[in-house]
């Protein structure tokens, strides 16, 4: 199971694999007799660390001197994109040495509330040009190129993130992350050690302050390095596969 939902109809004695302790606790509350094992998601570290020809900020018409804030994910309310854009707008009133890159499909064929939200995101981003660049959707094979542009990756999720691949991808690429404390990300993004946490409640003002503080931190590079080591130790596919095999073998030995 990768997402949190109410498991109606599942056998109380079901065996289940989840990627985080947060998700394990969620399902234990519904299925106290279930056998729930944690196997985290993994990444191909070589893809994120062996990028011989990375993108340059100038490729997106951004000055190399700009501190680049980076977001990747769904353009939907639960990901907090408008909050981030509003926070960036606040920061621009105080400093002109920053840029924002948003990776995500903001022109999808959504309808109703999601379509209205994406329209709001586009309008906000348009207002913030040329300091904000909306890249659009990027394939999983190409996303690692874009992490090379980031000075800080911000993940302002408004829902209980069960895990968050973007966080471990960014950390694996050696980039510092600033994340929501909602859900499972705090299991591997520890404040001041392997990353930074967003304050609660999240508002444009608090997010702006947290971004400013993270970029100004004298430990920023060390935090990024420790985050990268954390991913190297816990989330390479080889270790994830080994853990999966151990769980399955233990269940069916």
From TrEMBL:
Pfam families: Glycos_transf_1. Keywords: Transferase. InterPro entries: Glyco_trans_1. Residues 56-221 form the Glycosyl transferase family domain. One of its GO terms (biological process) is carbohydrate derivative metabolic process. It comes from the Bacteria. SUPFAM superfamilies: UDP-Glycosyltransferase/glycogen phosphorylase (SSF53756). One of its GO terms (molecular function) is glycosyltransferase activity. This is Lipopolysaccharide12-N-acetylglucosamine transferase. It comes from Salmonella bongori N268-08.
């Amino acid at each position: 199971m990768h997402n949190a939902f109410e498991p109606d109809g599942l056998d109380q004695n079901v065996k289940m694999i989840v990627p985080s302790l947060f998700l394990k606790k969620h399902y234990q509350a519904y299925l106290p007799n279930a056998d729930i094992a944690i196997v985290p998601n993994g990444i191909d570290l070589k893809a994120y660390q062996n990028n011989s020809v990375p993108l340059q900020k100038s490729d997106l018409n951004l000055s190399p001197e700009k501190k680049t804030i980076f977001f990747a994910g769904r353009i939907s309310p639960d990901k907090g994109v408008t909050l981030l854009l509003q926070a960036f707008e606040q920061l621009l009133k105080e400093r002109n040495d920053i840029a924002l890159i948003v990776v995500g499909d903001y022109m999808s064929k959504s309808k109703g509330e999601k379509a209205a939200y994406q329209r709001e995101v586009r309008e906000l981003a348009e207002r913030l040009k040329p300091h904000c660049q909306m890249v659009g959707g990027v394939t999983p094979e190409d996303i690692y190129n874009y992490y090379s542009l980031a000075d800080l990756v911000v993940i302002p999720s408004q829902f209980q993130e069960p895990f968050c691949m973007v966080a471990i991808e960014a950390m694996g690429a050696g980039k510092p992350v600033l994340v929501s404390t909602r859900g499972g990300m705090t299991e591997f993004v520890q404040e001041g050690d392997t990353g930074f946490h967003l304050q609660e409640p999240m508002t444009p003002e608090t997010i702006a302050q947290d971004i400013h503080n993270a970029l100004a931190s004298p430990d920023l590079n060390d935090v990024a390095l420790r985050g990268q080591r954390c991913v190297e130790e816990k989330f390479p596919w080889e270790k994830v596969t080994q853990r999966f095999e151990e769980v399955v073998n233990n269940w069916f030995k």
